[in-house]
Amino acid sequence: MLIYIHGFNSSAQSFKAGLLRSRMAALGLGNEYACPELAHRPRQAVAQLEALIMASPRAATALVGSSLGGFYATWLAEKYGLKAVLVNPAVRPYELLRDCIGPQKNLYTGAEYEFTAQHLDELRELETAAITPERYLLMVQTGDEVLDYRQAVGKYLGAKQIVIGGGDHGFSNFAGYLDTVLEFCGIGH
Q1: N- to C-terminal Cα separation, the chain
Q2: What is the domain partition of the chain in residue ranges?
Q3: pLDDT value at position 95?
Q4: What confidence tens digit (pLDDT) does each residue in 110-154 have?
Q5: Alpha-carbon torsion 132, 183, 170, 33, what sign?
Q6: pLDDT of res. 57
Q7: What span, in angstroms and rounded, lies between the C-alpha atoms of 46 and 54?
Q8: How far is the C-alpha of 109 from the C-alpha of 98, rounded, in Å?
Q9: What distance in Å separates the CA atoms of residue 148 and residue 134, rounded to the nearest whole number?
Q10: Which pTM does this prediction carry?
Q11: Within 10 Å of residue 71's Cβ, how many Cβ atoms?
Q12: Positions in the chain whose pLDDT score sits under 70
């Protein structure tokens, strides 16, 4: 099972989620792909993801997390011993999202909610002090306008890393890396 974990105010309808969904379907593995619409509350989002992991044969489960999804993927990979591909991951989202406290609207679903200090506390609870480098493929772009890619390079020191000059937070050339992502996750192509 390949589980894609979208980022803050994103959704299963996102660009990268769609690319992975299509590639898995083209490989005849469409039923081995999951990308849930995550709750905006971190505890609820992680509970949704844990339920998917528990329902899958763990040895065959891998994660792909983008931005905030990369933060969730790290916590889950360490807890469950899974491989994870992290695409421009948020390293300390409880600091990064401090300025987002207040009304929010999901970019894809249109859902509106109040982002609060409790959201930040729930994110802080998911901090992973140490990582197991061989579990991760880190993919970052130096032109990310939202996150400082150097934080991720430092946090995931020792992990396989692809650092691309330029680019953006959305990793708009993700399509060119689909086979690399799937190969790292142990999915044939």
Answers
A1: 15
A2: 2-184
A3: 96
A4: 999 999 999 999 999 999 999 999 999 999 999 999 999 999 999
A5: negative
A6: 74
A7: 12
A8: 22
A9: 22
A10: 0.96
A11: 26
A12: 58-59, 189
Q: What is the 3-state secondary structure (H, E, C) of the chain?
A: CEEEECCCCCCCCCHHHHHHHHHHHHCCCHHHEECCCCCCCHHHHHHHHHHHHHCCCHHHCEEEEECHHHHHHHHHHHHHCCEEEEECCCCCHHHHCHHHCEEEECCCCCCEEEECHHHHHHHHHCCCCCCCHHHEEEEEECCCCCCCHHHHHHHCCCCEEEEECCCCCCCCCHHHHHHHHHHHCCCCC
- Six token digits for residue 120: 């930040």
**Rg value, the chain, Cα:** 15
Q: pLDDT tens-digit profile of 149-161?
A: 999 999 999 999 9
Q: Could you say which architecture CATH assigns to the domain 2-184?
A: 3-Layer(aba) Sandwich (3.40)
Q: What φ, ψ does residue 113 adopt, rounded to 5°?
A: -160, 170
